[in-house]
Amino acid sequence: MTKLALTYAWTIIAIGAAILVGAAWQWQSANGTAFGVCLALAVFASTLKLTLPGLTGTISPGFVFLLISVATLSWTETVIIAVAAGLTQCLWKSKAPPNPLQIGFAAGTMAITGGLTHGVTWGLVAMRGADGMVVILGVAGVVLLVTNTLIVSTILCLLKEAPFQTIWRSVHCRTVPYYLAGGVLANVWVRAGFTTPAAIALLAAISVYLLSLCFRQLDYCVE
Question: Which of 1-10, 40-49, 134-143 is modeled with the greatest confidence?
Answer without folding.
Answer: 1-10
